[in-house]
Amino acid sequence: MLSVLMVSVLFSGCGQADLPVTTSDVLPTEVADQLPPSSPQTFGFGGEATDERIAMWDIDVKPDGEGLPSGSGTVAQGKLVYETQCIACHGATGTEGPFDRLVGTGPWEEWPSARVVGAYWPYATTLFDYIVKAMPQLTPGTLTADQTYAVIAYVLNMNGLVADDAVMDAATLPAVEMPGRDRFVPDDRKGGPEVR
Amino acid sequence: MAKKADSPLSRRAWITTASGVIAAGLIKTQADAVKIVAQEVSTPAQDPTKIPGRLTSELGQRAPAEQPRRLVRSPNLSSSSRTPLQDLYGIITPADLHFERHHAGIPNIVQEEHELLVHGMVERPMVFKMADLKRYPQTSRIRFVECSGNGGGAYNRDRMPTEATPQSLDGLLSTSEWTGVLLSTILREVGIRNGASWILAEGSDAAVMSRSVPLEKAMDDAMLAYGQNGEAIRPEQGYPVRLLLPGWEGNAQVKWLRRIEVTDRPTMTREETSKYTDPLKGGRARQFSFVMDAKSLITFPAFPYQLPDRGWWEIKGLAWSGRGKITRVDVSTDGGSSWTPAELQGPILSKSTVRFRHLWDWDGRETHILSRAVDETGYVQPTVHQLWDARGERTSYHQNHQRAWKVASDGAVTFGLGDLV
């Protein structure tokens, strides 16, 4: 490989633009995606992460509900949260915008209106993971767990996915059946001549 | 713009000025004299061989007439800006012109205080400061980063633009030399436990933006990048450290990285469910469509350029593939009826943009020029019809179909195939 590189360097200095370019010309310039064999098993740079430290940042929620905090919220409580924290961006009924539309049940194929919670979102837990981190847009991360459960209950209720008297908590939220769930398929593109 | 000086400073006037300065006692040494003179030279259009030039400076700047800019559509609300592809040479994007995309603004992070937590299904949960990360074996490689929504503005049959520029259409693409530590090095340090198959990467921005990434990619060529084109990574690109996933969609390459959790399943964050999934015909949606398929784009001639006359022109552009190396770029100057391999300019690097060129003797008649990239898997950049057939016309993201430019008989260049689509 090295000799190929050297030949390529020699010729490139002569400005021979008609030289065929082959992929082997450049392989030696690429660094291997692994450590050299002489590397130690561990280097020891960095510190131990304590349980307290992990708990402070490990706030994500998995689709089976792992990571959901204690607390709860009702549809009625959520309406209050929504109307004070969300309505300006998402509209009175979750359909007006000006930002992402939240409410709707289809027809699913009518993009982009179909990317709403009721038609597209495959997991209700994603609402918690997202809202508790990123919402409200201008004061992110300020809703309590109770407020977050409540506003999710309200949004799900507006989508017709939970009843008016529904209570959302760590047990009920992952159990909400989302219409979009079975729509998603893995990526089947794999290069080669076929267009997918 | 090099403005013409209406009244160029004459040598006599310059001498008078310098004399006045000397008379005022401001020049005490020869160096002072040169400095004063150099400051007088800021007015262009003087004979540069007759006046000493500007002296050295701590920070360089572009020539006054060369001021490429990112395209920011709505300045007060913008969460993206686009690279001026038509203004650049070679394959490297100047760091201050790298496209931007964020979900809650660019965080202000102090490097000394920034920490990366790595935990989950690992033997040794650890916290790394930037100094720790930088002490690990370092590597650099040239890789493109592209937003998976790039070019989606030219997919809808009913809304095909004609006045699109390379920047406005495909400017969510940039290429840098990234420097950092391989993620596999850090995962080796913490020790992956049996059964792990994914990681969650999470940012320290106001959206705490997070994506799930297969462990296989994390252990392959993923990098924790803290350098960009020879300097510290820019705040817009994730300072002090970002996840780099060569060849994969930009959104998954989490910036301002603060946490990696090793898991046995995806977290199903908003950005991998509600967003960055690709609706297909038949009511399905493709999920975890990470790889950016091969694509190319002619960056010259392109709207709004107008060819001033017929004759020899060099068609220039960029090609890239998230699956490896570009092996060929074909160019058509007759609306796609015939194709000729373009000249590829080395280095041809895996998952990097490549420059292509094609000399064209334009006969002055209206035509369409196109390019199509081929990568080392044998994938050929498809026509928009092929994508419509495969995915439907309502899909979104990964719209890597062939781009065309119409060249009118007066030399005016506009985007698209028009009625030929």
From TrEMBL, chain A:
Pfam families assigned: Cytochrome_CBB3
Keywords: Heme, Iron, Metal-binding
Keyword Heme recorded: yes
Signal peptide extent: none
Matching InterPro entries: Cyt_c-like_dom (IPR009056), Cyt_c-like_dom_sf (IPR036909), Cytochrome_c-type_DH (IPR051459)
Domain called Cytochrome c: residue spans: 73-159
GO molecular function, one term: heme binding
PANTHER family: ALCOHOL DEHYDROGENASE CYTOCHROME C SUBUNIT, BLL4482 PROTEIN-RELATED
Protein name per Swiss-Prot or TrEMBL: Cytochrome c domain-containing protein
